[in-house]
Amino acid sequence: MLTLLQIALVGLRALTGLVYVWSGFAHARDPEGSSKDLGLPKPIVLLVGIVELLAGLGVAGGLLTRLSCIGLMIVMLGAMHRKAMVWHSGFWGKGSQGWHYDLLFFLICLLIFATNGGDWTIDRLIFGARAASSYIF
């Protein structure tokens, strides 16, 4: 059924997926450079990049939506921890480098998780009504 909620969820999933895929691709393509920027070991940066890339695709397409959201929420918790506790950046930060952005994307992923991405997902095409009631997919 075509409703404003379903249209909004598809748009939100598409934009969120695009942001994470773009970020993940950059980290996975140049883990050494990203490692220096983030102050993290190269294998961790590569892992984060792969998670962002794959989970971003999952969120955008609605495939394994909840699992993808959990992965991205964990990444965002790590980013918020790094910015707040290691870099001592405030909520807004310097030059908009605070952890407000990460909190916003954490909450977007939580919303997508709670709605299972809406009615228009690959999960729903594959699993039908079972996908809507499952916390696994």
Describe the structure.
With 137 residues, the protein is an all-alpha fold. It has one domain. Helix content is 75%, strand content 0%. It has seven helices and no strands. Helix 1 crosses helix 2. The chain is globular. The chain starts with a helix and ends with a helix. The mean pLDDT is 91.
Secondary structure layout:
Layout: H1 4-29, H2 31-38, H3 42-61, H4 65-86, H5 100-115, H6 122-127, H7 129-133
Poorly predicted ranges:
none
SS content category: mainly alpha
Mean pLDDT: 91
Distance between the termini: 21 Å
Instruction: Specify the helix fraction band.
Output: over 70%
Query: Into which percentage range does the β-strand content fall?
Result: under 5%
Compressed to H and E, one letter per element, the order equals: HHHHHHH
Shape: globular
Largest sheet: none
Total domain modules: 1
Count of helical stretches: 7
What is the strand tally?
Answer: 0
What does the radius of gyration come to?
A: 16 Å
